[in-house]
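Pipeline run #58 for the internal structure catalog. This entry was flagged by the ingest filter as a single-chain record with no existing model, so it goes straight to prediction. Upstream metadata was stripped on purpose; only the residue string is passed forward. Reviewer on rotation: M.T. Logging verbosity set to normal.
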Amino acid sequence: MTRPSKRAPDEMRQVVIERRVARYAEGSCLIKFGETHVLCTASLEDKPPQWLRGQGRGWVTAEYAMLPRATQVRTRREIASGRPSGRTQEIQRLIGRSLRAVTDLQALGERQITIDCDVLQADGGTRTAAITGGWVALSECLKWMHSRSILKDIPLRDHVAAISCGMSNGEAVLDLDYVEDSAAQTDANFVITGAGALVEIQASAEAAVFSETEFNAMLALARKGIAELVALQKQALA
C-alpha cells in the first residue's frame, strides 16, 4: 500500500519541538507534526479554581483554539458566536485529562496551571500534537516553579503523549494527516504515558467497522509512535 504522503505504514511525520517560544509564559513550546503546528503555553495562577479551594491540591486545565486561517478556508472565530463549539470543548477536556493523569495535584498545592493550545496550522492530528506539546509546556512551567522554590519537587509522575492511528485500505497506519484521515475507514487517537500505561483511547468506525485484530494492530503502532514522541520530549528538555 502507498500512503498519500509516501510514508511507510509505521512512519510518523517529522516532529519538531521548540521550547521557550513565548516570552511571558512560564512554559511554552511550538510543536510541529508535519504541517500541523500548535503553540502550547503554560500559565501559572497562584490559586486553584473556586470549587477546589481549601482542599490542599491544585489543578491543570487546558484551552484549545484554531486560528481562523489554520485551515484552507477561513474558520470564523468561536468568540464571535459567544461560545466554544462542542468539538473544541471535547478536545480541551481531553488535553486537561491527559495532563492531569501524570501530574501529582496534591504536590502542586493550591495553584492552577492553564495550558493554552493554539493551532497555527492544521493538517490532521491537532489534538495529539496539543497533548504532546502541552506536556512539554507543563514541564517547563513546573521547572520554572521549582527553580524559584515555589515547589520543593517537580510533581510530574511520567511523560504523556498522543498519536493518531487508522485503518486505511485495510491496513493499520500511524499518524494520519488530513488527506489520509478524511478517507480512513477507522480513525483512532491514543493517549499513552512514557511507561506505556493507557490514559485514553478514542476510536470510531468511519466507513467500516473494525475487528479486535485491527484494533490491536493500531495499538501496536501507537505504542511505537508514543515511544518516539517521548524520546523527542526528553531530547527537547535536555
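catalog note: The radius of gyration is 18 Å.
catalog note: The CA atoms of residues 7 and 13 lie 8 Å apart.
status: ready for reviewer M.T.
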